[in-house]
Amino acid sequence: MTENARIKALEQIMPATHGADEDIDWQAAEAVWGSRFPADYIAFMGRYGAGSINGEASVLLPLPKPGLQWDPAQMAEETANARQVWEAEGGRAAFDVDPESILAWGVTGGSDILCWLTNDPDPDRWPVLVVGRHTADSFAVYPYGMAEFLYLLCNDEFDVSPVGITFWDGGHLSFVHWQKAQRRWQEGRNPETGEPDPYAGDFAD
Asked: Residue 139 in 3-state DSSP?
């Protein structure tokens, strides 16, 4: 299955209605991280962009961007967090990898960090590594790319959830781009649903 086919499959269960092309400078991102990125992540950024899934998981930007209201989540901070967990859990004694091979691409509301394990020189073969906070194992590797992992997770196809939170209920799955979420907040609406929210906009400039 091509990366575009994987994104189309994901769109069948999670429409990209509130997504946006992130318009990433991939050369700059590759220079910062010392590698190119998986094709499915690049395709995801072009169709959905960075943002929130059901308000319970977020896909991260590869480079920092200034926010409309607050700076959106990005890889550097969560990658550092994942590597700190690796160190705190015992380093190689807990999970025998080079910490530099852990690269975060998402987070969940349950404090799980969704990463790639970047040992393979081909990014399209990077498996997903879940650095779990409330899961059976602190480190678990899944033999899927990012888009396929999200599809399986959102479609509830794992026998045991790989993350410590359930962010689907068998119903509608929504994705909201971070810019749209922040605009909703500024307008006094819930960032995820768009419904009026008396608490939204409290910290608007």
From this structure: strand
pLDDT digits 0-9 by tens, 87-118: 999 999 999 999 999 999 999 988 899 999 99
Closest CA to 32 of 7, 3, 64, 58: 64
Torsion angle defined by CA atoms of residues 131, 135, 139 and 141, in that order, rounded to the nearest 10 degrees: -90
66 vs 32, 49, 181, CA distance in Å? 17, 15, 14
The pTM score is: 0.91
Q: What share of the chain is helix, strand, coil (3-state, %, to 5)?
A: 35, 15, 50
What is d(CA 12, CA 16) in angstroms, rounded to the nearest whole number? 9
Q: How does DSSP classify residue 38?
A: -
The DSSP 8-state label assigned to residue 49 in this structure reads -
CA distance 197 to 110: 23
Tokens (6 digits) for 17: 């209605």
Residue 131 in tokens: 């650095």
Specify the 3-state DSSP secondary structure of 2: coil
> Using alpha carbons only, what angle is made at residue 12 by residues 6 and 17, rounded to the nearest 5 degrees?
105
